[in-house]
Design goal:
six-stranded mixed beta sheet, 5 helices, alpha+beta
Length: 149
């Protein structure tokens, strides 16, 4: 997981964009486990069925911006574009007790936009951030929900 969270193509779109140390990943896993037990929200690892290799993560978090869950996904570079992200997102959607599900995608990340659109998400908004970046808001089963962002 540390390798994934140090991959510039992943970390560019996560948190403040700084690579995570092994200690950061260990703390994050502990927090995620607590959240999953306490709320039903949390992070799941994405592993290969054949040998258990960890290739990414997918998460549903309580959205601070709207009713529902906020989805994030990260797949290690060698495994992108091979359907693993779509399988992970679809599995999380099926297992999530919370709907609607939302996601934010940086405009500079067209692969993530294609992934989520392919999994049934719809574009429901756009925003310009203070740092000049642009984000696209997507929703799944979002009808009638007002986005508080």
């Amino acid at each position: 997981m540390t390798l994934i969270m140090q991959d510039p193509a992943v970390i560019e779109f996560v948190s403040d964009g700084s690579a995570w140390s092994r200690a950061d990943v260990v703390r994050w896993i502990a927090r995620s486990g607590r959240r999953l037990r306490e709320t039903g929200f949390g992070t799941r690892t994405v592993t290969l069925r054949a040998d258990g290799t960890l290739i990414g993560r997918v998460a549903a978090s309580k959205s601070p911006r709207a009713e529902g869950a906020e989805l994030t996904v990260g797949i290690a570079a060698p495994y992108r574009g091979r359907g693993y992200g779509a399988e992970a997102v679809s599995g999380l959607i099926a297992a999530s007790p919370v709907h609607p599900i939302f996601a934010w995608v940086e405009s500079a990340n067209p692969a993530s936009l294609r992934l989520l659109l392919g999994c049934g998400f719809q574009v429901i908004g756009r925003s310009s951030e203070a740092d000049g970046s642009a984000k696209i808001r997507l929703g799944l089963n979002h009808e009638g929900v007002t986005d508080a962002a």
